[in-house]
Design brief:
Layout: E1 10-13, H1 14-24, E2 34-40, E3 47-52, E4 60-62, E5 65-67, H2 70-84, E6 87-94, H3 104-114, E7 124-134, E8 137-148, E9 151-155, E10 157-160
Parallel strand pairs: 1-3, 1-10, 6-7
Antiparallel strand pairs: 2-3, 2-6, 4-5, 7-8, 8-9
Bound molecules: zinc ion (ZN).
């Protein structure tokens, strides 16, 4: 029997999703926002997003561009690492009017991060809050992209209850139901 989770490439903790939904409202002003994603990359399993950061006071927010507040991101990363060993695994950002697809500029940013030997990423997670038309209505969507050198792939993502990814436990205990 095939597990319904077999293809899941990203596990997103419910509280991290709530953070993204809350912080993304900032984009109601028409400018992009975003933040870092912290969690674990088991390499042989889905990426686990445990925390999503906010933009920070010194972030650059433009209609088609977002640049994180580096100092703020580093503080969040350090706090999360002390708490549960979370590492920097990616970023989320909004597209106030466009699709949840990385722009050329986004892709160039991700490739430069992947190419930085000090950061030592083997893959980089990008979550994008964008829009798509559903039944004639413009709806907000969250899409997950995994970037590797030269590639960016749209991948299946599953939101799980916080308890489904235990602190300090590298192996997620997947819920048995579909919720
Ligand atoms: Zn973008």
């Amino acid at each position: 029997m095939t597990s319904p989770f077999a293809e899941t490439a990203i596990l997103l903790r419910a509280s991290a999703l709530t953070s993204i939904q809350t912080y993304a409202k900032e984009s109601d002003d028409g400018r992009e926002t975003g933040g870092i994603l912290l969690g674990r990359d088991p390499l042989n399993g889905p990426l686990e997003v445990l925390h999503a950061g906010d933009a920070g006071p010194d972030a650059v927010r433009d209609a088609r561009f977002f640049l994180r507040d580096l100092g703020h991101a580093q503080r969040l990363a350090s706090q999360a690492f002390d708490k549960d060993g979370s590492m920097w695994i990616g970023e989320w950002h909004t597209h106030p009017v466009e699709e949840a697809v990385p722009s050329d500029r986004d892709l160039a940013t991700y490739q430069s991060l992947l190419a930085d030997p000090e950061l030592a990423f083997t893959r980089f997670l990008a979550l994008i809050v964008g829009h798509c038309v559903v039944d004639g209505q413009l709806e907000k969507v969250l899409a997950g992209w995994i970037c590797t050198p030269g590639f960016a792939e749209l991948v299946p993502m599953r939101c799980v209850a916080d308890r489904a990814i235990a602190d300090g436990d590298a192996t997620p205990q997947l819920p048995t139901s579909g919720t």
